[in-house]
Specification:
single chain, alpha+beta, 8-stranded mixed beta sheet, 5-stranded mixed β-barrel, 22% strand, globular
């Protein structure tokens, strides 16, 4: 018999009754039932119940074991009595009657129990992540992650993609988030950067003549943590294709994601044909370029119903500024003053002066609420008909320049959907967001800047860049969104150097800066580059959705905390003076306030 086990803790069934078995694992739980000791023994695969009575030669050893000790047990497989069968365990019909026990490792007093799924402070969970990972839910999530990544690789190869690895040490670039910098020992005063994404390398792979590339790529960004973004590092399914237009990318990627979600969604419906929604439309209907389409609420402009009305707040704004609009956010089933007042209070908590509303009750064609009284029955009725509302419903309003209030309106839409339980949480709704603006106005810098990916092809090419207002130029850029979570950004790339030069010039980059920061890419494009494009769905976010989690920490093996610290390994850490001398680095203490 093997030194440690003849079976795993998930193997034994009724067919093994009468056999001798050897198991090794962690003591999940110990229960004393009046002289009978029950040990739930756990390993990577599952749990088996071990039982000892006072006649067992190993009874004294069994009495000594504690939670999370690592032990080996030998014994006979026996059937459980009918009233003790556990249908929730694959091994629940049998138990091992103990006759030998060896302690392989003891465990100190636990800072957090492994048994159960109680919540503990983030600091405790991350400091003792190796214990946290023993918990069933987290262990299951990490195994799911591995299975999803394996299946992604199979699906990508089935689409004709080849997996290549790109460098981890590269040059710093000015776009995107902050770089993590790595000092060079051989080149004093110079630094490598960890890649924010393999963007330039994957484009160069296409220039080099390869046709379909993918990689489960590590990416590094020195930015603040969020629930849907890990600090420091994350992984993405990096994809690039040659000789393609936007629709070709969609046709290659959409079946992979659809099949992946269908296989791991536990029977939940998955969108079969992903709708294409222009960015401008998404912002007007949903107040977000990451719309959760499970929420049926769609906003509409109702400016005409307030222009010249008795509701002077909105009417005055419309008269003073032709760019002002009023948007209506319908709330089916929200037709009560209590709900409307609650939403108004929520808006004030978001830093808004309030959230105007109308709600409709039986016998009130003009609706109820201050706005209804000020605009009159005819206008209120016109809003109700336009929005398709009825008795028992409500409608909320946001006004101003859309670029100023759209994000808040989108939050209100989400809040209403959640409060009224309009969102179908048992499905996965995908969409493409397309036609992003190539440029945007940077209020802080007071200049035009790239709004998305600087390497994207503008719609209309060089003619559009030379002949149109930059803020009106659209790009072949697209995002893929699922249940309100942005899974990926992508684009058809700019493969012509003269277009790249013009685009960067519009964004304020001089030719010298372009050559310094992106010289490798610019040089490559002068030697014959194919039209190409790609996308990069986030692995962590895909797993988070399929695992039903709301935080990436729950699907990542060893995450950092919100301050980008690894509490378990003590990173970031100080280094020795010798190491600093070798790197020609001197630490300058930060100035104290």
């Amino acid at each position: 018999m093997h030194r440690y086990r003849s079976h795993t803790c998930a193997d034994l069934r009724a067919s093994n009754v009468g056999e001798r078995a050897r198991l090794s694992g962690w003591v999940h739980r110990v229960r004393d039932h009046g002289g009978l000791l029950f040990i739930d023994l756990r390993d990577h695969y599952g749990i088996t119940q071990v039982v000892a009575d006072p006649d067992s030669p190993a009874f004294a050893s069994a009495e000594a074991v504690r939670a999370e000790w690592v032990i080996r047990v030998d014994g006979k497989v026996v059937s459980r009595s009918e009233d003790t069968v556990n249908p929730n365990l694959p091994t629940g019909a049998v138990e091992v009657f103990l006759d030998e026990l060896e302690v392989l490792s003891t465990a100190a007093e636990l800072p957090m129990p492994v048994f159960g799924e109680q919540e503990y402070p983030e600091e405790t969970r991350l400091t003792y992540r190796f214990l946290d990972l023993r918990r069933e839910r987290l262990h299951r999530n990490i195994m799911l992650r591995g299975e999803i990544i394996s299946r992604i690789r199979e699906l990508m190869r089935g689409q004709g993609f080849q997996e290549f690895q790109t460098p981890i040490l590269t040059a710093s670039s000015p776009e995107g988030a902050r770089d993590f910098l790595v000092p060079s020992r051989l080149h004093p005063g110079k630094f490598y950067a960890l890649p924010q994404a393999p963007q330039q390398f994957k484009q160069l792979i296409m220039v080099a003549g390869f046709d379909r590339y993918f990689q489960i790529a590590p990416c590094f960004r020195d930015e603040d943590a969020r629930a849907d973004r890990s600090p420091g590092e994350f992984y993405q399914l990096d994809i690039e294709m040659s000789f393609v237009e936007q629709e070709d990318v969609f046709q290659a990627v959409e079946p992979v994601l659809r099949q992946l979600f269908e296989e791991f969604a536990d029977g939940k419906p998955v969108t079969q044909v992903f709708p294409r929604i222009p960015y401008a439309e998404a912002m007007r209907k949903y107040g977000s370029d990451k719309p959760d389409l499970r929420n049926p609420i769609e906003m509409q402009p109702v400016t005409e119903h307030f222009a010249g009305s008795g509701f002077k707040v909105f009417a005055g704004m419309i008269e003073a500024d032709p760019k002002v609009e009023v948007w209506a956010i319908p709330a089916p089933g929200g037709g009560s003053r209590a709900f409307c007042d609650r939403m108004n209070s929520w808006a004030q908590g978001e830093g808004q002066p309030g959230l105007g509303y109308i709600f409709w009750r039986e016998g009130e064609d003009g609706g109820a609420g201050p706005i209804a009284k000020n605009i009159g029955v005819e206008r209120a009725q016109a809003i109700r008909e336009q929005m398709g509302l009825t008795v028992g419903d409500a409608c909320f309003f946001a006004a101003g320049r859309p670029e100023k209030f759209a994000a808040f309106a989108g939050l209100a839409r989400t809040r209403i959907g959640e409060e009224l339980e309009l969102i179908d949480t048992d499905r996965f709704d995908f969409c493409w967001i397309v036609d992003y603006p190539m440029f945007e106005w940077d209020e802080e810098e007071e200049r035009v800047d790239f709004s998305h990916n600087p390497f994207s092809m503008p719609q209309g090419g060089l003619e559009a860049l030379e002949g149109r207002d930059p803020l009106e130029v659209l790009a072949y850029q697209y995002d893929i969104v699922c249940n309100g979570v942005e899974l990926s950004s992508g684009a058809i790339r700019n493969h012509r150097p003269e277009i790249m030069e013009k685009a960067f010039a519009i964004a304020g980059y001089e030719r010298a800066v372009l050559e310094e920061k992106f010289g490798g890419m610019l040089n490559a494009l002068t030697y014959g580059a194919p039209p190409h494009g790609g996308i990069a769905p986030g692995i962590d976010r895909i797993v988070m959705l399929l695992a039903g989690e709301e935080n990436l920490r729950e699907v990542t093996l060893f995450p950092m905390n919100q301050r980008a610290e690894d509490l378990m390994m003590g990173a970031p850490s100080e280094v020795s003076a010798r190491q600093l001398r070798e790197l020609n680095i001197r630490i300058i203490p930060a100035e104290q306030d």
